[in-house]
Amino acid sequence: MSTKFTSVYDSLRTAITGVLTTHRELNNPYILTDDADIMYDKAWTLAIGSAENTRRSQCPYLTIGREFNLILAHKYSAPHRDIASRITAEKAILNYQLDVLKVLEYYTTSDIVKVSYISDNGIEFLGGDRIGYLILQTLISVEYLETI
After folding, report:
1. Which DSSP state fits 58?
2. Burial of 76 by CB count in 10 Å (0-12 exposed, 13-18 middle, 19+ buried)?
3. What secondary structure does DSSP assign to 123-140, as a single string?
4. What tens digit of pLDDT does each residue of 19-58 get?
5. Which terminal Cβ of the chain has fewer Cβ within 10 Å, N or C?
């Protein structure tokens, strides 16, 4: 018996790739500082999180709610005290997040029941003095049906 998780994960990646057409996908969503691909101007990755039984009565299915962490990274190299550039970069990453959420909020397949935005951690900075990345991690929940 095969798992439905594979099709759920692949469907999410396809939907996100369709929205973030100017972004590159990072190799390692679990340790961003170890990812050599973070040299890209705009990047994204999807980390698999915890799951729970949502206990919906859908015989012969088990309904699973799994969390995913969508990570957006944007290169930021504005000089110190360049407030306008920082604000522009912050708005851009938040707009990309919203573009993805708009697509995922109503995204369903034969396996995906519901996709929900849970939270984000706010914009963080990763890097050194001259160049770095604005990072935005967004927690989403995907409820899907698994055949039992």
Report:
1. B
2. buried
3. EEEEE-SS-EEEEEEEEE
4. 999 999 998 898 877 555 567 889 999 999 999 998 876 6
5. N
Answer whether 35's CB lies under 8 Å from 28's CB: yes
Domains and their CATH numbers in the chain: 5-147 (3.30.2000.30)
Structure pTM?
Answer: 0.89
Q: Quick check: 63 and 70 in contact, CB under 8 A?
A: no
- Residue 116 in tokens: 């929900």
Task: Specify the DSSP element, H or E, that contains 43.
Answer: strand 42-53
Average pLDDT, consecutive stretches of 10 residues, N- to C-terminus, the chain (148 residues): 85 96 91 68 95 82 93 84 86 97 89 93 84 92 89
Widest Cα–Cα separation across the chain: 59
